[in-house]
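so the lab meeting is tmrw and i was supposed to have these ready like two days ago... anyway. pasting both below. for each one the top line is the aa sequence and the line under it is the structure tokens. i havent really looked at them closely yet so no promises
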Amino acid sequence: RPPAARMHPHSPPSSTVVLGIGNELMTDDGAGIHALRRLAQRQAAGCTFVDGGTIGLALADTLAQAARLIVFDAAALDAEAGSVRVFEGEAMDRFVAGGPRRSVHEAGLQDLLAAAALCGQLPAQRALIGIQPQAVDWGTAPSPAVAAAPDRAADAASALLGRWQRDDSALVDAACEATAA
């Protein structure tokens, strides 16, 4: 299991916090935790991996230290079981805040993001990677329809991290060119 983040309150922001949400004892509800582990196995540089369990405001300090945030969670996407969808930036905010609840953890995530926004600590680069569950019942393994979704979610996160890194590099290059001119 990836270690929970342990950061000093005065430490500089971590480049990326990757947060997995879910209850592994409830079949597909644990998809976010499984995706977190898949990504942690392949991509550790510059990332802090946090098993958020069923979430709470106790994670506010961890979020405050994030320059970027990726959240994995099982969510009602109105799609086929095992579907993976990425909500980035304001699309994430709308998904978490709008309409009927789409995740059993949504209220906790919504509260966590609202607290960060109120404190001026909401990461500018943020994304929710949702996985459509098939079943949320007692069991420690995902349903067959969802079993491959954590790998696809980790792939989506890797692509997102790569794009964010390229965007950062382009901004630094542009700043250097402007300074040289």
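ok protien two:
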Amino acid sequence: MRRLKIIEHISLDGVIQNSADDGDFPYSDWTAPYRTPAGRDAMLAAHGESFDLLLGRRTYDLWSGFWPKAPSSPMADRLNAATKFIATHRPESLEWGPFEDLGQDVVKGVRRIKSEDGPDLILSGSSTLTSTLLEHGLADEVLLVVYPVLLGTGKCFFAEGTPARSFEFAGTKAMPSGVILSTYKVAGPLKTG
């Protein structure tokens, strides 16, 4: 059975949007000043040698405009080789492969993929899909790559109405740039006092 890890680059105030492509967002590529060789190596380790991707349609469209044309590198090569499982209503327009449409019922599609043999699944971006996966108990782990910035506007990590959840702390790593990588295991429904 495959495990599903959510990896999100996030500001201190919960913003994951990094591009103006899907709205009037003023801070395109705000993570760039914090990119370092140590951070790159940490992200490569977090993804692993082999993985498949689970992506919402907007993230797929953004990434398919960049990664297939990117120079060869360990990350570009791994992303381009990964099978992309896409939540979309327009599967006929998919081009960056290998790919597979999740089908009309995204939850059923993800359950099927997780039950099959294969590499672990990585989800990045795709905030609507993230909330759905957590609501249905399909995510196993969350890695937050937290940047020391406040943005004040933009798409947030969780969609409004995402069900309350508890997480167990699994580890953290600080980068010299001030970026913090914190890993959490999904523990289930929110526990209260």
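from a quick look at the 2nd one: The first strand starts at residue 4 and ends at 11. The CA atoms of residues 67 and 85 lie 16 Å apart. will dig more after coffe
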